[in-house]
């Protein structure tokens, strides 16, 4: 039985990997990061540090996937109605709105499946199980796939659809308790502060993710202006995608990203209670 971590390089999966490095959790056989190619630079810097810590503990790390989500998304957005191809099936959950319409829509998200789930499954089948393309996997479960989902996020837990894989959630203790208590995201932050005070894991999400909250867009604009410019240019480029009636937007206000009002309620003297949770992603990509 192999223990493999789906590493998103965010707070929770970072905590799980480091707990394994320190022996608080069983030693992992591998940690796997599925790379879309458009994570913030801070995530890649943190990932390099994590790879170093894992190496010290004898845990191999892997980067898998096709890091081309930006290029593929731009190609898909620029295709016209008559063009077909695999790239057309790869969509981000853009917001869409027709000219003069009141209601807005959202495109079905396929990026998680194409750039996160499929590459991870392919890696496990080929590299961990040693299966050829199309070869049937054994009936018995042979991989424990760990996820960094905490006790305050139980809605995100899933049962694996693959008979050769069991989804394991060490932080809430599912299906078996491996820690003295269930860990929330806050507990993970406390544990890392006590054991690795030098790090502050960034949130893992593509630069262009439409599920960014206003707080995240504002943070990008103010702290990483080069990534903000990249996102604004991308948002402008996808606006009139061939084959769709409405225009496409990265922000749920359905206005150009650089024109969105990102001021906080606190700026208007009303506090800032809910700003960080607006249209936040459920986090199925990774944490």
Describe what is shown at a glance:
This protein is α/β, with parallel strands linked by helices and 287 residues long. Helices cover 31% and strands 11% of the residues.
Structural overview:
The protein is built from seven helices and eight strands, in the order βαβαβαββαββαααβ. The protein is globular and about 55 Å long. It is α/β, with parallel strands linked by helices. The strands form two sheets. It has a five-stranded parallel beta sheet, sandwiched between helices. Helices cover 31% and strands 11% of the residues. The protein has helices spanning 11-22, 41-56, 69-78, 111-128, 185-195, 214-223, 225-237, and strands at residues 2-6, 30-34, 61-64, 95-97, 105-106, 143-147, 165-168, 247-249. The two termini are 24 Å apart. The chain folds into two domains: 2-67 and 111-195, HUPs (Rossmann fold), CATH 3.40.50.620; 72-109 and 208-277, no CATH class. Strand 4 and strand 5 (105-106) form a beta hairpin.
